[in-house]
């Protein structure tokens, strides 16, 4: 089981690099095994193009290294942040931390991303914005605590002067959320440029809460599907 989770970590870490969400060994990714509670996490300072699942490190929630197949590999220095997420969110089994350009630019300004498009609805933003976690030095308990606090309001957050974090039940979805944050940040940036720095209109939180799947679409029920086989 852990071998498969390690392979997932490599797959999506590499995907993040190749899509431009991370560069130059930045960012980190992890998956938790719901059975053991162990966390498979990217090693520190390693080129993703050279990384194999043997390089992925396994740690427990107390930051003890459980397994390091390649002996010289150490878990990412930001492991405490990942572990704090898992401690505070028992339903979450994946964390993606990226350094995408547009989102990080707003993180530097400590500026939350507003609901300029409806797609923010899929990011679990309870207040209609992507929040910004207060600054914490990378690798410190302070960073972990500040980040988890921001994630009380959303499944995604900017990290002041740092980057983006996204959480979900699996790493594919967590990375997808991080990708949406970057897209939202880029759209927001361009609207500010086009609008001479003035804030664009937002989709209100009350409007976001009204969304539902269209009743007009007639779906097949289970009985119809079964009888048609």
Features:
aldehyde-lyase activity, 229 residues, globular, alpha+beta, 10 strands
Distance between the termini: 34 Å
What is the average of the pLDDT values? 93
Kindly report the spatial arrangement of strands forming the biggest sheet: 4-3-2-1-5-10-9-8
Structural class computed from helices and strand pairing? alpha+beta
pLDDT below 50 for ≥5 consecutive residues: which ranges? none
Q: Helix share of residues?
A: 25-40%
* Order of SSEs: HEEEEHEHEEEHEEHHH
Q: Count of DSSP helices? A: 7
In short:
This protein is α+β, with helices and mostly antiparallel strands and 229 residues long. It has seven helices and ten strands.
What does this entry look like structurally?
This protein is an alpha+beta fold. Helices cover 35% and strands 15% of the residues. The chain has seven helices and ten strands. An eight-stranded mixed beta sheet has the order 4-3-2-1-5-10-9-8, with helices on both faces. Strand 3 (57-59) and strand 4 (65-67) form a beta hairpin. Helix 2 packs across helix 4. The chain is globular, with a radius of gyration of 19 Å. It starts with a helix and ends with a helix.
């Amino acid at each position: 089981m852990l071998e498969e989770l390690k392979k997932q970590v490599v797959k999506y870490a590499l995907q993040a690099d190749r899509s431009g969400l991370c560069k130059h060994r930045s960012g980190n990714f992890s998956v938790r095994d719901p059975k053991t509670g162990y966390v498979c996490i990217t090693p520190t300072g390693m080129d993703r193009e050279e990384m194999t699942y043997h390089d992925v490190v396994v740690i427990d929630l107390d930051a003890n290294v459980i397994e390091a197949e390649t002996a010289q590999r150490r878990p990412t220095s930001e492991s405490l942040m990942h572990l704090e997420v898992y401690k505070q969110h028992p339903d979450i089994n994946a964390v993606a931390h990226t350094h995408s350009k547009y989102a990080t630019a707003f993180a530097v300004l400590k500026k939350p991303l507003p609901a300029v498009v409806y797609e923010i609805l899929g990011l679990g933003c309870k207040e209609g914005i992507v929040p910004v976690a207060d600054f914490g030095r990378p690798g410190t308990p302070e960073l972990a605590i500040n980040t988890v606090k921001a994630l009380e309001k959303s499944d995604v957050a900017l990290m002041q002067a740092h980057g983006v974090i996204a959480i979900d039940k699996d790493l594919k979805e967590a990375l997808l959320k991080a990708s949406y944050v970057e897209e939202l940040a880029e759209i927001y940036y361009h609207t500010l440029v086009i609008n001479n720095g003035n804030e664009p209109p937002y989709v209100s939180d009350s409007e976001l809460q009204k969304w539902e799947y269209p009743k007009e679409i007639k779906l097949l029920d289970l009985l119809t599907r079964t009888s048609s086989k």
